[in-house]
Amino acid sequence: MRSLLKDKRTRKQGLEDIFFVMVVIIAIAFVTIILAKVWSDVRDPFETGLESALPSDTGDVNVTDTLNKTTETTLLFDKLLPFLILGLIGLVIIGASLIYQHPIMIFVGIILLVVAIILAVAYSNVYHQITQTDEFSSTTSQFGITDIFMKYMPYIVVILFVIIGVILWTRKGGTSAGY
Fold it and tell me: Other C-beta atoms within 10 Å of 97: how many?
């Protein structure tokens, strides 16, 4: 019975979750910036097309107000990104607290940290190179929070690594033979 419980509690995750967090953050950042850019390009022709297509007897339909609310909603994603990041970090911390890690894995963790920092710097640089282009410069100015988080993404990765590392290596390792 004890071996069954041990097998269920031993998970093969931990520091690899940092890569998941990085991919989700960069994906959300790119999707929201592209969404806002496409919406700002399409909004005016869309409004003109809707107003010309609506019959005159529709009554109190305010197309401009509806489209303004849609624009505000696309800009709301910028304010939601910190909550997404905090939720992901909380998820990773909870997941890390359920893992029993052997102390020798610190060397693997250091290698993963180096790879994660290199990827975080690359993702951050790609994001800033794309958002500094003429096409995205007006859209990027409306996404200040996302821009800040993407600028400091390597630091977020290091902080997350330290938190996970402290949780993993302060817990007792699994009770395997010879340990």
Answer: 12
